[in-house]
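Might you be able to check the backbone structure tokens below? Thank you kindly.
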Amino acid sequence: MNFKNLGIRTKLMGGFALVLVIALVQSLLSMEQLRQVDTTANELARHWLPGVKGADALKDDLAQMRVQRMQLTMLEESSRVAAVEAKLAELEKQLATHLAEYSKLIGSPEEKALFDAAEAELKIYVGMNAAMVTRMRDLRAVEAKVILNGEGARSFGAANATLTKLVELNAQGSDAAAKAAEAAYARARIIVLAALCAMVVLGLGVGWLVSRDIVTATSQAVTGADRIAAGDLSRTIATERGDEIGQLFKALSKMQANLRQIVTGVRQNAEGVAAASAEISAGNHDLSGRTEQQASALEETAASMEELGSTVRQNADNARQANQLAMSASTVAVSGGEVVDRVVETMKGINESSRRIADIIGTIDGIAFQTNILALNAAVEAARAGEQGRGFAVVASEVRSLAQRSAEAAKEIKSLISTSVERVEQGSSLVDQAGTTMQEVVASIKRVTDIMGEISAASTEQSAGVAQVGEAITQMDQATQQNAALVEQSAAAAESLKGRAKKLVDEVAVFKLDADAPAARSAAPAALVPVVHKPVASTAMAMPKPADAKAAPKVDAKSIDAKPAAPVAAPMAATPSPRPAPAPVALAPAAPAPVAATAKAAADDDWETF
């Protein structure tokens, strides 16, 4: 595994891990030495020092017991022996206690042998106490002194010598334990110092390696970034590292490649913009001349529309007068229809009256018939009466004569009334026909009035439309004048764009690219050469259409109102230059045909809409 391919985190973690492992080993070794020191200290504190103390205590008990024996031999009264005897008994118990305590501290065979010898000698020495006390009770001091100075002295010397050896043995053990502790301390100090030195050396070594690796790589990265900042994009940033620094180099290399590509594109597009702006300036001059021609054609169209407007207004006035006459005729026809309706109603009343008269005449005829029958009956009765009924017969004859005359008159009146009723019915039917005819006449006149109203409204709308068309043409004339001014502004903006493009080319020239960059740069303007003349020619072919006088009546005011906004926005879009480069490159292959087609389609749509 290559060290340069390791990540910075891995390198740092590895260095720290190595130092931590050394520290761990040092800690473990130090703990082992501390354990040994603790063991030695425990041995010293729990065995050797108590052994020395216990042996000294036994020697002290032995010495006190000898002192009491000596005092016992100096007594002259037997009454005082009991006190010394009590002290000796107490010393014996104390000696037994110390022997029992020391027996627990024995840690070696040599020490046990010395302890057993001392214990045996002490028992012998203690056993002499009873004999001396017995003799002193009898005041046999000479015999007691013989025991004290003879066998007692030898036993005391042997026991004291053994206890002294026991003390020396414990002292030697204490010295050995102390030396062992000192040796463990010395070893622990050496181990700690060695581990510290190893940690310092390894830490410095790892730090030096990692820092040298990082500083060297970052210095190279800074050098590459400085070259890029200075505009030198010709040198390729390459690295074989696989760590974070290598990723940084790869990112810088990718950034340099992208920046080289961007600068190349910007340089080519800037040069293309410079060439295109020159062509735009020439096209704007041609467009200015065509705009002036369009303005003159619009003035002629405005004059023609003014004449057409006066004719349409006169036609609207005539239609308005005809509408008024038709409305008057409609009013008269309606009045005549109402009169005919009243005549029809009157004829219906006359017809009804004639029918009632006929009914009355029928009644009179019936009365005459009955009167005639009554007269006949009266004549018959008068004939039966003879002479007495002769006058009554004369009256009946006269009545009969009158009844016959009434019947004849009623028949004549009935025939006359029937004839009158027939004629009234004929007149009523004729009046009904006349009413129907008058209603048809009224409806026809009303339709004529409506048609004349529609003609008048259409004439008014035509007059308003012609006025609007005139205003629209006037606005088109104004818009054309504004377009001419905007074309001049566009030409100035194109000149400004040309200067800015040249400045942009000079600024981009600061960057130093590869050897193949000049060829690409020189090829960019050549690609833009066909863009210039064809759109101008196609625009010139499409522009004269609005100047045609025959197409002028199709103009709509609403679309003309919307057109001045486009020329106003044109110089505003041409003035700023944040993104001039992409336009020429993107439009170079497809510019000629779409411009002409778009201009022609836009003009046709505008004229056909109106």
Remarks:
- The chain has a mean pLDDT of 71.
